[in-house]
Amino acid sequence: MDFVVEMLNIRKEFPGVVANDDITLQLRRGEIHALLGENGAGKSTLMSILFGMYQPDKGSIKINGETVRIANPNVANNHGIGMVHQHFKLVSNFTVTENIILGNELTRFGTLNIQGAARKIEELSKHYGLNVDPHAKIEDISVGMQQRVEILKMLYRDAEVLILDEPSAVLTPKEIEELIKIMLNLVKEGKSIIVITHKLKEIKAAADRCTVIRRGKTIGTVDVKTTSEARMAEMMVGRDVTFTVAKAGSNPGEVILKLDDLTVMNNKNVAGLKRFSLDVRAGEIVGIAGVEGNGQSELVEAITGLRKAESGNIFLEGKDITRDSIRSRIDKGIAHIPEDRQKRGLVLDYSLEDNMILEVYNREPFSKRGILNRSAIRKYASDILSSFDVRSGRGPLSLSRSLSGGNQQKAIIGREIELNPSLLIAVQPTRGLDVGSIEYIHKRLIEHRDKGKAVLLISLELDEVLNVSDRIAVVNNGELIGVVEAAETNEQEIGLMMAGVGKGGEQ
Amino acid sequence: MRNLIISLCAVLFGLIGGAVLMAATGHDPLQGYKYLFEGGLKNSSRFGDTLATGTPLVFTGLSVAFAFRTGLFNIGAAGQMLFGGFCATVIGLNVDTARPLLLLMMIVAAMLGGAVWAFIPGLLKARFNVHEVVSTIMMNWIAYWTIYYAVPAYLKAESVETESRLLPDKATLKSAFLSDLFGGSYLNMGLYIAVIAVIVIAFIINKTTLGYELKAVGYNRHSAEYAGIRVNRSIITSMLISGALAGLGGLAQFAGNGANIQIGVLPTQGYDGIAVALLGANSPIGVLISALFFGLLYSGRGFMNAMTEIPPEIADSIIAIIIYFAATSVLMDRLITRIVSRRRASAKAGTGTGGPVSGKEKA
User: Is there a domain that residue B235 lies in?
Assistant: First the structure.
């Protein structure tokens, strides 16, 4: 069999964790090979080894049949391996061309030959159907387009093997479709692709074969066409996974959150949320559906106090909190799982335990008269970390930065639910999580509802909104299009409303 | 631990660099270092002077380090120190009361003076997002010219135009006990205050909710804001504390090591505080040790100059090289990592794992 890349019996240990234990991955020429595993299963470590960022403790890597040592990413590049990271590595005020040639500049008589490079990029872009404007600035183009720039960067360096690390995590559904098309184009032209993902649907749609790893070990490599999604999920998690969320009917009580005619400005200082009114009751989950950038951030930030309301009022349990400080809203019972875990959710340079008390450090028993109580903090943090299965090298003392993205997310969710808030605002709570964790998070959200609390769920994943919510409010262009019962609607109806139903709203 | 190694390496490289310089200019490095260290440590009087020279540096170093832990780069310790020292001098020259009370008033005045000088950049940063590097440097010069005007106008000595009257002994930090203990050195009670300040600041940073808030703001103001911490107020608080520390440095300098305040000088301890904080890895204890080390170099350099032909600038160069290596601690970090991993590679067959390679992902 013709393998481009073979990683044989790879083992890698970090202090306190075995990240990879005897993992084997063989990539055929011209295939899309999915690497599937839970958060913290060791996928990123494995790919970092292939890309030369870590050295394996044991095992060998073969490229085109020859054993090689990949000492650093430059060596990987020379072997034709390119990687698109989950968090893009682009200079935002450079143009596409400038970003692509960075570190590999085309020069003529000692000066940059931008034009020549741009031409080559344009050709590549056409050839692979990427449709990227080489002269556009990164800050002006969409996230999906930025990802293509990253792909182009690899192609420009003549990469034969492309590693894509959770490429769909940051994309809208439409962009995902396009990405899959691009990937199929690439393999048609003879490239080989390894794609790290949790999303079984996408694996089904794009991949040829799939290697599943669990807790650092290879579970197996399967042929995607002949393997069901349920089977792959089971291999990944080690047990049966239910895709639909089991929940009893809701039992709504009194109104917890009342938004009355709320208008909020966006960053460009025009109304991002327009005269928005909505009630969220105790014992129900209200989902907000909408395409990204249609007022969801403004809505969340206004409720939590991060952004001030231009007009209108916000009531929590009957009390007007429109002018309250962020702290006072937290104290009154609002908890918030933020959209961007690294920007807002965590102080990455704090230990996990310090992050677990981010909103409550000033309450007893965590501090008394301004003095922190370490043992109380550690106990509280350990409890959250174990009950939400947050995996880390050194438990509560681990630096938050060192955790995988999914574990960071679980830690944040644990922290917020532990506050036992009367209103829980969950923004994209399962972004970047594997199916096992998603199932668990959904269960916890529903549990929270069943305790008689209100939950406001904002998600770009339509499946999630439909499955978890009791009622769904659809926003378009900052306006409330309508509120529907989740049990009585379907994807088509919501999709139409998201497009603004007749208000002229495609993109 | 790693910070300690980096700082020690920086010092070592600085000393090696100094030796190379001495050798290159035709002097004997061993001789030079012998006198440099003897100058600072030879007898109890010289040791006392070393401690005294280091005292204002402890304050300015703490000032810079504290601000830095909260994400602020306070370049204005010099101005805060000058103004704090000025305020203390005003009290010392004009108030006549029992010594403990007088000294207490001077301490408070120095802290207030420094705090006021730092409050303005803090406010500008919080309100208008004016970068503190720019505004603190400007405040340095405002302090410089304020003193330039105010000292001759209000505190002038009888004969000399360029400095204030001498403070009466009871209005200085002079201590007969310390002086006698260290063979007539000018070591004074400033050292006590410095040690107390180190302990208090270490406590604030590590054990209190205030320190927790300020560090959170320093690391990530977005998540601090999200958690309900008042970011703007934290910035101002941090600058106030930082300025008060620098103000105490002024007290230690102008009413401890010296006994009056001069015009036309921006105290060098202000900028040296940045180096001290850097070498001390922004930890209070580290600052204390590195300030005293700098004190040693400064007080030993005169002796080296007197006993050999080596120019005193060599000592300054050593300090500069140390700062350079402390400032490039990232490079040092990498160097250490490489050495560790190489050693691990050579000792591979054995235990194989469990070495101290950092758990950082994707450096």
Answer: yes
